[in-house]
Amino acid sequence: MTVIRKEDVIDSVADALQYISYYHPIDFVQALEKAYNKEQSQAAKDAIAQILINSRMSAEGKRPICQDTGIVTCFVNIGMNVQWESDLTVQEMVDEGVRRAYNNPDNPLRASVVADPAGKRTNTKDNTPAVVHINMVPGDKVEIQIAAKGGGSENKTKMVMLNPSDDVAAWVEKTLPTMGAGWCPPGMLGIGIGGTAEKAAVLAKESLMEHIDIQELIDRGPQNAEEELRLDIFNRVNKLGIGAQGLGGLTTVVDVKIKTAPTHAASKPVCLIPNCAATRHVHFTLDGSGAADLQPPKLEEWPEVTWEVGENVRRVNLDNITKEDVQEWKTGETVLLTGKILTGRDAAHKRIQEMLNSGQGLPDGVDFNGRFIYYVGPVDAVGDEAVGPAGPTTSTRMDKFTDMMLEETGLMGMIGKAERGPATVESIKQHKAVYLMAVGGAAYLVAKAIKKARVVAFEDLGMEAIYEFDVVDMPVTVAVDSAGNNAHQIGPDTWKVKIAEMEG
Questions:
Q1: Which of the following CATH numbers is that of domain 314-490: 3.40.50.300, 1.10.150.110, 2.40.30.10, 3.20.130.10?
Q2: Do 271 and 204 meet the contact criterion of CB atoms below 8 Å apart?
Q3: Where is the Fe-S hydro-lyase tartrate dehydratase beta-type catalytic domain (predicted)?
Q4: Quick one: which of 118, 377, 419, 480 has the fewest CB in 10 Å?
Q5: What pLDDT digit, counting tens, does each position of 175-223 carry?
Q6: H-type helices in 176-278, by residue range?
Q7: DSSP string, 50-111
Q8: Looking at residue 313, what is its pLDDT?
């Protein structure tokens, strides 16, 4: 009879969450390196380069790969012969590990979990509770698979109840372009098929815990219907030309994972969950001998990738920029930003809307006129950092506020990740504004350009407060220019045709 101690579970979970905050799984790094080497789209190649450089920097600096340090998902497989030495439930032990990991003063992680989701949405301040799935299995050990899942990719989850005769690959091929780029490709797709609706979702999430092995599958060939489906979806998705960050390119996914369960004869539940470029998970086993011993990967495992701004780079000073200057910028250009920018996310925009509607006006010290807003919720700073990792959040969530911001506050431009909706692109064009894209999944790299940071409003919103950042040479790409030319439409459309021609 194996005895599993409470502290061993708590310490292991806390260590694991710190570990995955700054160490990418090496199989994912290797898959990204292959994608980088074969990529022919310059915009996508540059994005993958930044993701790989950021990954290595995070491993060296032991700081988060992405500012969205995720909601914790934990699969706990408990051997039937295990005995617990604990006054806490498994959920409570995992939550205590989460609490310690996210409040670690050496590497504080961003608390993103809110309670009362249909009401006040109050931050729990320690990222608890985790989502814990408990399975009883044969044996005398406890196996734990743990992941931290960012909101940008989790929000793109799709679910369908297909007819038994329907083609899953065709559904995925049709659905993926509707998901936009907010899930930060290149990543993985987890697909659950069968069971009931909720079972399919759990299967999809669990499949994302698996090792990347699509190349081995291609080399040896599929041996069953599930493996045939994996390859079919992998090929179909990459032919879509969506590419890294949705800018158009050869690699949209580095693997497709599928888990299945028996289902009702009349049903075919399917759930699709993408994993982003900040794929984070680790597995360990507790056998009663103590906490898990997670060995750090060797830095030599990371490729020596460099990224230099191209010759057409445009350096701009945001403190004296004019509307006329912005109208010269063209979609696809690299721009290096220097000067002051303001930040704001969902909660800040909602509060601004309420204040403007009530006639209060903007809070003291907040003036968006002629300024740029960065959609970000940074990690707290440590040591001499101005701010912790501070990559962009998904911009489409702010689409419903964009007209208001451009019309009523004098905002000149926005910085975020992924595409904007058609109505927002039209609004940008109408107001002669601009939308700039920073690379999602390169949060530590982006943060190095931020030299000063201070909260200017809504401090009670935590990471959703409005900050003022002083930046120097912050790299961005013009995603929508003042004429409404949209990189997230032009890039994938172009590369879908190119891929078809290359294979034709």
A1: 3.20.130.10
A2: yes
A3: 288-489
A4: 118
A5: 999 999 999 999 999 999 999 999 999 999 999 999 999 999 999 999 9
A6: 197-207, 214-220, 225-238
A7: HHHHHHHHHHHHT--SSS---EEEEEEEEETTEEEE-SS-HHHHHHHHHHHHHT-TTS----
A8: 85
Q: What is the pLDDT of residue 310?
A: 66
Residue identified by tokens 């090792």 is 211
**Do residues 295 and 21 lie in contact, with contact meaning Cβ atoms separated by under 8 Å?**
no
With bands split at pLDDT 50, 70 and 90, how would you rate the model's confidence at 106?
very high
* Whole-number Å distance between alpha carbons of 400 and 450: 28
The pTM of the full predicted model, rounded to 2 decimals, is 0.93
Bond preceding residue 129 cis, omega within 30 of 0: yes
The Cα 233–Cα 502 span in angstroms is 19
Residue 102 has pLDDT above 70, yes or no: yes
| Phi and psi torsions of 304, nearest 5° | -85, 85
pLDDT, averaged across the chain: 96
CB-based contacts of 118: which residues, under 8 Å, 6+ apart? none
Q: What is the dihedral of CA 52, 54, 58, 61, to 10 degrees?
A: 120
> Region 331-346: what's the mean pLDDT?
95
CA separation, residue 320 to residues 146, 244, 316, 362, 375 (Å)? 47, 33, 9, 22, 21
C-alpha atoms less than 13 angstroms from C-alpha of 370 in its C-beta half-sphere: 11
Residue whose C-alpha is closest to residue 481's, from 313, 336, 328, 265? 328
pLDDT at residue 503, as a whole number: 85
Among 93, 100, 20, CA closest to 63: 20
The candidate with the shortest Cα–Cα distance to 206, out of 151, 156, 165, 149, is 149
Which is nearest to 373 in space by CA: 413, 403, 324? 413
Rounded CA-CA distance 149/190 in Å is 13
CA distances (Å), 300 to each of 30, 59, 296, in order? 12, 11, 12
**What pLDDT digit, counting tens, does each position of 397-455 carry?**
999 999 999 999 999 999 999 999 999 999 999 999 999 999 988 889 899 999 999 99
- Residue pair 478/329 in contact (Cβ under 8 Å)? The answer is yes
Residue with tokens 């617990």: 84
Amino acid at site 83: Q
Cβ–Cβ < 8 Å for 286, 141: yes
**Residue for token pair 């006129």:** 369
Q: Where are the domains of the chain?
A: 1-150+281-306, 151-277, 314-490
- What single-letter amino acid sits at 274? P
Residues 6+ apart with CB under 8 A from 422: none
